[in-house]
């Protein structure tokens, strides 16, 4: 590691350090696309950490909405017809697969298949 890289790492904010860790974890899980590289209306696999979970009804239908952060951006995951999903909680690492699209300026994936992954240190 060069002096410049050491200095940059020492001066990095907590958010930058977490983003670097998430990008590294995404590479380790393999075959995952970074959120900022997701093409519109394309099937993809993304790995990251859940930052928030919300019950947000859509047109009278219950829906669980979660924000998945992978270090490059945030992907909104929406499960329609659900009020809660066991294991989907802030801090949980997930690997999701599904059709990614852009809606209202946000990357969204509806009813993705998911795999719960171990939290760091577990």
Automatic annotation (TrEMBL):
InterPro entries associated with the record: NA-bd_OB-fold (IPR012340)
Source domain of life: Bacteria
Name of the featured protein: ATP-dependent DNA helicase RecG
Organism the protein comes from: Cellulomonas marina
């Amino acid at each position: 590691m060069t002096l410049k890289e050491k200095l940059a790492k020492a001066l990095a904010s907590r958010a930058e350090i977490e983003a670097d860790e998430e990008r590294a974890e995404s590479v380790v899980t393999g075959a995952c696309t970074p959120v900022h590289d997701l093409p519109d209306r394309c099937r993809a696999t993304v790995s990251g950490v859940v930052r928030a979970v919300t019950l947000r009804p859509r047109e009278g239908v219950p829906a669980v909405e979660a924000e998945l952060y992978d270090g490059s951006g945030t992907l909104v995951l929406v499960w329609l017809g659900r009020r809660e999903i066991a294991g989907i909680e802030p801090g949980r690492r997930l690997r999701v697969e599904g059709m990614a699209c852009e809606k209202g300026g946000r990357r969204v994936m509806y009813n993705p298949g998911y795999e719960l992954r171990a939290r760091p240190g577990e």
